[in-house]
Specification:
This protein has 167 residues and is α+β, with helices and mostly antiparallel strands. Helices cover 22% and strands 14% of the residues. The protein has four helices and six strands; from the N terminus they run E-H-E-E-H-E-E-H-H-E. Strand 2 and strand 3 form a beta hairpin. The two termini are 31 Å apart.
């Protein structure tokens, strides 16, 4: 760049990360966040206990940007996709007319702190097939009640992975 000229177009910078406890008075946590809550949605699904139900979960995972996780015994299908109203500054473009689910969501227990984990996390159909075989064996069609109780208490906790890259 030649002397005297300045670059007037600065790229938008991510907000500086601060701890929840260090939030300045009068500020909103969302001002320091990367809007994780606007980059996916998760829907509760029935707890699978038959080969057919596991096959549906395998089918979910044959689609791009989908994962399945368990948390406190409940199962969810997660679709990693960004809300079309999320702006480049990580703010809502329809804040005043946003849906009730967004209005009811609070920062009290949100993902801001990056320390959340799932009991189980499936990203591929092959992972579900392996799990299904461990639960059902090669020939059974349904998980027995005694197996349900035994496996429901097991946890393979690990750190939640970062959301899929947004292209």
């Amino acid at each position: 760049m030649s002397r005297g000229l300045t670059n007037t177009k600065e790229p938008m910078k991510e907000p500086a990360k601060i701890g929840r406890a260090n939030l300045p008075e009068g500020k909103v946590l969302c001002e320091y966040c990367s809007a994780k809550c606007c980059r996916y949605f998760a829907l509760a699904i029935d707890i699978p206990d038959t080969r057919t139900e596991f096959e549906y979960i395998r089918w979910f995972l044959l689609h791009e940007h989908a994962s399945v996780f368990t948390e406190d015994g409940d199962w969810y299908v997660c679709v990693h996709t960004t809300c079309k109203h999320l702006q480049s500054d990580n703010r809502c473009g329809i804040y005043h007319t946003r849906p009730p689910i967004c209005r009811e969501y609070t920062t009290k227990d949100c993902e801001f702190d990056d320390d959340w984990v799932y009991d189980q996390y499936f990203e591929t159909a092959e992972q579900v097939e392996e799990y299904m075989e461990a639960m059902l064996g090669l020939t059974a069609d349904k998980i027995k009640d005694t197996q349900k109780k035994k496996f429901r208490k097991l946890s393979i906790r690990s750190v939640k992975p970062n959301p899929l890259a947004i292209l």
